[in-house]
Write a structure and sequence with these properties.
The chain has about 260 residues and is α/β, with parallel strands linked by helices. It folds into two domains: about 20-95, Orthogonal Bundle (Arc Repressor Mutant, subunit A); about 100-255, Muramoyl-pentapeptide Carboxypeptidase, domain 2, CATH 3.30.1380. It is about 50% helix and about 15% strand. The protein has helices spanning about 30-40, 45-55, 55-70, 95, 100-120, 125-145, 150-155, 170-185, 205-210, 215-230; strands spanning about 1-5, 15, 75, 90, 190, 200, 205, 240-245, 250-255. The protein is elongated, with a radius of gyration of 21 Å. It starts with a strand and ends in a 6-residue tail after the last strand. It holds the Pfam family MarR_2. It comes from Sanguibacter gelidistatuariae.
Length: about 260
C-alpha cells in the first residue's frame, strides 16, 4: 500500500467539507452567494455567479465585496488575456466553509497529526494502522446498529470474518460500494466509477491538516478504506491514495494498481 503525492499547488485536491455554517455577520443573500462559492471547484467571476443565481452582476458584485470584507471570500485578478483590466476571481475561504465546531476539530486534528509526524519513527505506518482500526470500528458499529443488514445479504455472509471474497465479484463490488457510502457519510463527497474501484474524493474534512501533514492525515484516510474493506471480508491489499491528484479531488484506488 502506498500514498502517491503528485501535485503540490493549493488549488489541486478536494474542497473542504462544509458543515453547519454559522454566519452571524452575513445577510441571507450573502449566505446564498457564499453557498454557491463553496460548491465551485475553482474561483468564479462575477458574471459566472450572476448567471448561476439569475441575478444582476452589480447585485452579485455588491454581495461579493461584503463577503471579502467579512473574510468569508477572497478576490484575485484573473490571468491577463488581452487588453483591458482582468476580471476578478472570487473563492470562499476555508474558514467560511466550516462551522466553528468543525474549525476546532480541524485544529485538534492538525495538532495531533503534527505530533505524530514529529515523534513517530514511522508516521505513515502509524497513521495507516490508526486508520485501519477506525475503518474496522465504523463497519462494526454499522453492523451492530442494523444499518448494514441489506449489504450483508448482498455480500452473502457476515462481515468481519476476514475471508476475502475475490472469487465472488458481486460480493467484492458490494463491499467497495459500502466503503464509498461510508466515505460519503464522513464528508468526503466521493464520486465512484461503475465498479467502485476508482474514487474521486471531492471534499476533505481535514483539508488544512492534510496540506500540513499529508503523510499522516492521508495515511489515516487510506487506512480507513483498507480497514473497512478488511472488516467486510473483502480484498484490502494494494489500495492507493493520490492526494491532491487533480483539480477538485484526491483519487483513491480501492483495488491494486498495476505497476
Amino acid at each position: 500500500m502506498k500514498i502517491i503525492r503528485n501535485g503540490t499547488e493549493a488549488q489541486y485536491g478536494p474542497r473542504p467539507t462544509p458543515a453547519g455554517h454559522r454566519r452571524r455577520r452575513l445577510t441571507p443573500a450573502q449566505s446564498a452567494i457564499l453557498d454557491h462559492l463553496v460548491d465551485q471547484p475553482e474561483p468564479c467571476t462575477v458574471t459566472a455567479l450572476a448567471e448561476m443565481m439569475h441575478q444582476h452582476p452589480n447585485t452579485v458584485r455588491e454581495h461579493l465585496d461584503a463577503l471579502v470584507a467579512a473574510s468569508a471570500a477572497t478576490r484575485t485578478p484573473a490571468p491577463t488575456t488581452g487588453r483591458g483590466r482582468p476580471a476578478w476571481l472570487y473563492e470562499a475561504t476555508i474558514e467560511a466553509r466550516l462551522s466553528e465546531d468543525a474549525q476546532e476539530y480541524a485544529s485538534l486534528a492538525a495538532a495531533l497529526a503534527g505530533h505524530i509526524a514529529r515523534t513517530s519513527a514511522n508516521p505513515a505506518a502509524d497513521a495507516d494502522a490508526a486508520g485501519m482500526e477506525w475503518g474496522r470500528d465504523l463497519i462494526r458499529t454499522a453492523m451492530a446498529s442494523g444499518d448494514m443488514d441489506e449489504d450483508m445479504d448482498d455480500m452473502g455472509g457476515v462481515a468481519g470474518d476476514g475471508d476475502h471474497r475475490a472469487d465472488d465479484p458481486a460480493a467484492e463490488l458490494c463491499a467497495r460500494r459500502r466503503v464509498v457510502t461510508l466515505l460519503d457519510e464522513l464528508g468526503f463527497s466521493p464520486e465512484a466509477d461503475d465498479d467502485a474501484t476508482v474514487i474521486r474524493l471531492r471534499r476533505c474534512p481535514l483539508l488544512a491538516a492534510a496540506h500540513l501533514h499529508p503523510e499522516v492525515v492521508c495515511g489515516v484516510h487510506l487506512g480507513l478504506a483498507q480497514g473497512a474493506l478488511a472488516e467486510l471480508g473483502a480484498a484490502s491489499e494494494g489500495l492507493t491514495l493520490l492526494p491532491f491528484a487533480e483539480r477538485g479531488a484526491c483519487r483513491l484506488h480501492l483495488t491494486a494498481v498495476p505497476e
